[in-house]
Design brief:
Layout (H helix, E strand, L loop, with lengths): L18 H11 L4 E3 L6 H6 L6 H6 L3 H9 L13 H11 L7 H14 L10 H12 L4 H7 L2 E5 L9 H9 L4 E3 L1 E2 L10 H14 L6 H17 L4 E4 L12 H12 L6 H22 L2 E6 L1 E2 L4 H7 L7 E2 L5 H13 L5 E6 L5 H9 L10 E3 L9 H14 L19 H19 L7 H20 L6
Parallel strand pairs: 1-2, 2-3, 4-5, 5-6, 6-9, 9-10
Antiparallel strand pairs: 7-8
Helix pairs in contact: 1-18, 1-19, 10-11, 11-13, 12-13, 16-17, 17-18
Length: 473
């Protein structure tokens, strides 16, 4: 691709296509703090708070979005996840960026260069070394806490295994950074019964709770122990993100005790027995979340690790996951209904990766808005492959048609990068432009202050009220 000459691509009115959109964004959305209630940032890096130091570390070390783009551009794996030098990896990314035009990677890259480094040039081979040097000079002194504060990130929620000792969260709490950092309880490893890694994980869990998990009752006792520990350390959310079918089947307590005992004896379990165990575990966890006043999140509709060779070479999260197309909604209905029947359904957010199921998910969540809780059941923000302009607009439109957009809790990054927070700006600009277009078409009242307040709620206030972090003990 030839050299791109355009500068100032990210203007003040980027993505804002009318005067109404400009007013809504600049006067109501732009300066709001950020609550990023789901991401994969490292609590250790935040606690240690050492300068990020290098743009390749910040951008490319774990970003499977960029890895996929580089592979599609013909970059050899050594320059992606391999042991090539940081500078050479960055140069290969710079070669890729011009070819990401119309992919969200192009917008995200330029937004991050502008917001963190005040760089207007489009990253490409002819300016890559200059940009590499300039960004590294900034990152030699910028710490994770400073980068978060720079973007007005008020709250982040990391993603944490139940066996985590949360030592870094405790350090962060004592450090009193601008950004509050809370753990999220993600018990995916508890669901892999019948696999060798499950037995290994039970041993790790036993070490945490200091008692033997010799039966299913002891497993539940251990889980409750860890939930209590997370709760004491500020946890407000749980998450579920295992791949495969979300399947909820009938079970009884005696069956689950028997299934767990068989697994301990090394007896191979049937698929039904595995699903019975998982269903029982889901119910127990969700009831406990309700008891604690937590929010439960479910990331659904993904098929992971499709490329065996790449997965063996790179490991998990190599960038070979995709949208899944399997039946899910009947199991989700059965699960939510079982909890609601006994009034033990916690606030719930579902994220679906398959856009063909947008209306399906949006309407399912609306079935369980009970108990007088505003926005209790959330069909979450456009996620992963859908986290781009078209996907965001579709999610906003479907939610508007099937539910109450005004009660939506807004955007999250789901990111491993400390430079990813301009994605909130990206979402806010798209939201403001969408609402402004409705004003121009006469579909909503031409009342900027009324629409502006709704935008403030979606971008910030609804999340504050939904999670109630400041009131959490």
């Amino acid at each position: 691709m030839s050299q791109i000459n355009s500068k100032n691509f990210i203007t003040d009115n980027f993505l804002l296509n009318s005067q109404e959109a400009e007013v809504l964004y600049h006067e109501y959305a732009k300066d709001l703090p950020i609550i990023d209630y789901h991401n994969h940032l490292s609590a250790q890096q935040i606690a240690e708070n050492k300068p990020v130091n290098n743009i390749t570390n910040a951008w490319l070390s774990e970003d499977h979005y960029k890895w996929r783009g580089m592979r599609a551009n013909g970059v050899e794996e050594n320059f992606i996840s391999g042991d090539a030098s940081k500078e050479k990896k960055f140069m290969k990314w710079a070669e890729t960026v011009p070819n990401t035009l119309r992919n969200p990677l192009f917008h995200w890259t330029q937004l991050e260069l502008k917001r963190y480094f005040n760089i207007d040039e489009i990253l490409q081979p002819n300016n890559a070394l200059e940009i590499y040097s300039k960004t590294n000079r900034v990152l030699e002194t910028k710490t994770p806490a400073q980068l978060l504060e720079q973007m007005k990130v008020e709250v982040i929620c990391t993603t944490d295994d139940p066996t985590d000792d949360l030592r870094y969260h405790k350090q962060i709490a004592k450090a009193r950074f601008f950004t509050k950092v809370y753990p999220t309880f993600r018990p995916d490893n508890l669901f892999f019964i019948g696999e060798q890694k499950f037995d290994t994980y039970l041993g790790k869990l036993e070490d945490c709770v200091n008692f033997s998990i010799s039966n299913y009752s002891n497993l539940l006792k251990a889980i409750d122990n860890r939930i209590d520990f997370f709760h004491e350390n500020g946890c407000k959310l749980s998450d579920y993100g295992i791949s495969g079918v979300f399947s909820f089947v009938d079970f009884n307590d005696d069956e689950i005790q028997s299934v767990f005992d068989k697994n301990l004896r090394g007896v191979k379990l049937t698929e039904l027995e595995i699903q019975q165990y998982r269903s029982s575990l889901l119910m127990h966890l969700s009831k406990k979340y309700h008891e604690k006043g937590w929010v439960q999140q479910f990331h659904l509709g993904v098929i992971r690790n499709n490329n065996d060779r790449l997965n063996e070479l790179v490991g998990a999260d190599a960038g070979c996951d995709s949208i899944a197309d399997y039946p899910i909604i009947e199991s989700l209905s059965k699960f939510l209904n079982a909890l609601d029947r006994t009034d033990q359904l916690a606030k719930t957010i579902t994220y679906n990766l398959n856009p063909a199921q947008n209306e399906v998910f949006a309407t399912m969540m609306g079935n369980f808005n009970t108990g007088g809780v505003s926005g209790k059941m959330q069909w979450g923000a456009a996620w992963w492959f859908l986290d781009q302009k078209d996907g965001i607009e579709k999610q906003l439109n479907v939610l508007s048609n099937m539910g109450l957009l005004s009660k939506f809790i807004g955007m999250l990054t789901d990111s491993r990068s400390f430079l990813s927070f301009p994605r909130h700006e990206y979402f806010r600009r798209i939201l403001c432009d969408l609402m402004a277009e409705d004003i121009r078409k006469g579909l909503v009242p031409n009342d900027i202050s009324f629409i502006g307040k709704m935008i403030e709620n979606i971008c910030y206030n609804n999340a504050v009220n939904y999670f109630q972090f400041n009131n959490y003990k």
